[in-house]
Amino acid sequence: MKPIIAPSILAADFANLQAQIEMLNQSAAGWIHCDIMDGRFVPNFSFGLPVLEAVHKHARKPLDVHLMIAEPQYYIENFKKAGASNITVHYEACTHLHRVVEQIKAVDCKAGVALNPHTPVALLEDIIQDIDLVCLMSVNPGFGGQKFITHTYPKVAALRELILAKNAQALIEIDGGVNEETAPLLLQHGADVLVAGSFVFQATNPLQTILNLSNLST
Question: What domain range is 182 assigned to?
């Protein structure tokens, strides 16, 4: 089974954003990953609703929206209206996680939960059957181009075991440091979705880079 490749437009050339999105439309990517940062939950800002709306106008693939923001419960409907197909919130940002997951489903989006590198997958035991996606951060959230955290490999395996034990359907997404070296190992440990930012957009041939990733086997 081939993985879903979700290039992160955080690493795109924003001066030529329409052209970058049109390139992704022509590529083997399955999703377009959109990182939203608020300067509170993570120490950086990225882009918000107006840019997401602009991306949606040109995108021909589902927008995989990753909310690295505090109090995401107040913005779920707005991100759906802006074009999100998947909405992922951070475990660490949600005091009432189940309620937020239900909010996401109520607006007809796939519901994801992201875990920071230090957060154990066992904390998802009581909600894994209710979510469509788990995004494991393999770098500390907030900035692109960081070094991959190798502890992610056993973490992916542990999450796969939890999903199987609970007879759940959640996909495992990896965000951070995905490249030609880490991708095969991540897939061997049980990953389904690979987010790649700098590795794609800084490549000499982004289309071929995406194709190469998509041709790996899970």
Answer: 4-214
